Amino acid sequence: MRNFIQPGNTLTLPAPADVLSGAGVLIGSIFGVANGDAETGEPVDLDVVGVFELPKISALAISIGDKLYWSAADSAVSKTASGNTLIGAAVSAAANPSATVQVRLNGTV
Prior knowledge:
The protein is built from no helices and nine strands. The protein is mostly beta strands. The protein has one domain. A five-stranded antiparallel sheet has the order 5-9-8-6-7, with no helix packed on it. Strands 1-4-3-2 form a four-stranded antiparallel sheet, with no helix packed on it.
């Protein structure tokens, strides 16, 4: 197929801000986890599918299978859809309070 470009599991995009390896990055409606550090405007490789442990809003209790959203204001996972971007589903439970949750990224926009 001549129009195939790549599988799309990892995208190289300009960093919207300074980024550290392992951080969640939201660019428009594309969410991914940075493979390395990058300064603003520099290319950064983002994994957009897979399972990652990400920071969450501490006061949330999350169950396996819950839809999860990225809160750009908190730079953390949320269960609130309004104003946030759907990033995937929980593959681990996370108590209230706790700092992280394992998320299976959905790879869609």
